[in-house]
Amino acid sequence: MLEYVVEAVLEVLIPLCEMMGILVIAVSTLSAFGRYFRGLLTRTPGDVKSQLASGLALSLEFKMAAEILKTVLVRDMTELMVLGAVIILRALLSFFDPL
């Protein structure tokens, strides 16, 4: 019984986390482009790379949350390899992010 409840909740929660990650990517990309374009017009340098990297790192946090939730429903090793890849990407972005 509890297994079905967990599966039902995760079927809603996992796509929600992934959609939040997509939203963060879209907003941070548009915002970084806006800052870049404004910097071109005003000839003042902006920290576009750092802002975009922070947005991508945050979106990977949401993706990692979704992947961790998916491990509850893991059926094969490929899903675990995807989780490992996301964790490695997140670690690399944290390492290179100056914030």
Label this structure with key terms.
3 helices, mainly alpha, 99 residues, single chain
Account of the protein in words:
By secondary structure, this protein is mainly alpha-helical. The protein starts with a helix and ends with a helix. 85% of the residues lie in helices and 0% in strands. Helix 2 packs antiparallel against helix 3. The longest helix is centred in the first third of the chain and has 41 residues, at 2-42. The protein has helices spanning 2-42, 48-70, 77-96. It contains three helices and no strands. The model has no long low-confidence stretch (mean pLDDT 86).
Q: What is the molecular shape?
A: elongated
Structure classification: mainly alpha
* Series of secondary-structure elements, N-terminal to C-terminal: HHH
Total strands: 0
Major beta sheet, specifics? none
Terminal residue distance: 45 Å
Low-confidence stretches: none
From the alpha carbons, calculate the radius of gyration and give it in angstroms: 17 Å
The residue-averaged pLDDT reads 86
Number of H/I helices: 3
Strand content: under 5%
Secondary-structure blueprint:
Elements: H1 2-42, H2 48-70, H3 77-96
Helix pairs in contact: 1-2, 2-3
Task: Give a quick summary of the entry.
This protein has helices spanning 2-42, 48-70, 77-96. The chain is an all-alpha fold and 99 residues long.
